[in-house]
């Protein structure tokens, strides 16, 4: 845990381009597996494009990014993407930044089950895709995001 604190103290200031002071949750750190799908709710009232960047503690691996293009629907939307199997194991950060929004959302994660394949990650990064869907209105609780096709 001391290493993780040191990593975030030293490298987060260099990796995350904050232009204002924002809090970053440093614990508990989310434990994820390579190939796992991540789900986000986009509170996207301006219908703007967002970018997710996955940055690794292992400096051998360059950050990878994907664009979340909004759907033409009113209200919030869901976004999902899969962590490639070729990622390195260890500490990483997922940064979200949206056009016209000052600030960045950061999730600190620990990845396990990755193959740590630099060459394959370069290939995987070209096909990294964020799937965005419109959320439907519902009065019943659900565990997975509820989606409806956008026209």
What labels describe this entry?
151 residues; disordered C terminus; five-stranded mixed sheet; 2 helices; alpha+beta; Immunoglobulin-like
Can you tell me about this structure?
- With 151 residues, the protein is of the alpha+beta class.
- The protein has one domain: Immunoglobulin-like (Sandwich), CATH 2.60.40.
- The protein has helices at 2-15, 118-127, and strands spanning 30-33, 37-42, 50-56, 64-68, 77-82, 90-98, 105-112, 131-135, 147-148.
- Strands 1-7-6-3-4 form a five-stranded mixed sheet, with helices on one face. A four-stranded antiparallel sheet has the order 2-5-8-9, with no helix packed on it.
- The protein is globular, with a radius of gyration of 16 Å.
- Mean pLDDT is 78; it is low at 1-20, 139-143 and 145-151.
Gyration radius over CA = 16 Å
Strand order of the largest sheet: 1-7-6-3-4
- What is the CATH class? Mainly Beta
Q: Quick one: overall form?
A: globular
User: Can you give the mean pLDDT?
Assistant: 78
Tally of discrete structural domains: 1
Beta-strand level of the residues, as a percent range?
25-35%
Question: Can you summarize the main beta sheet?
Answer: 5 strands, mixed
Q: What is CATH's topology name? A: Immunoglobulin-like
Q: Enumerate the spans where pLDDT stays under 50 for 5 or more consecutive residues.
A: 1-20, 139-143, 145-151
* Count of helix runs: 2
Order of helices and strands: HEEEEEEEHEE
Considering DSSP H and I runs of 4 or more, what fraction of the residues is helical? 10-25%
Which architecture would the CATH scheme give at its second level? Sandwich
> What is the SS-derived class?
alpha+beta
Q: What kind of oligomer do you see?
A: single chain
Please tally the β strands and state the result: 9
Distance between the termini: 47 Å
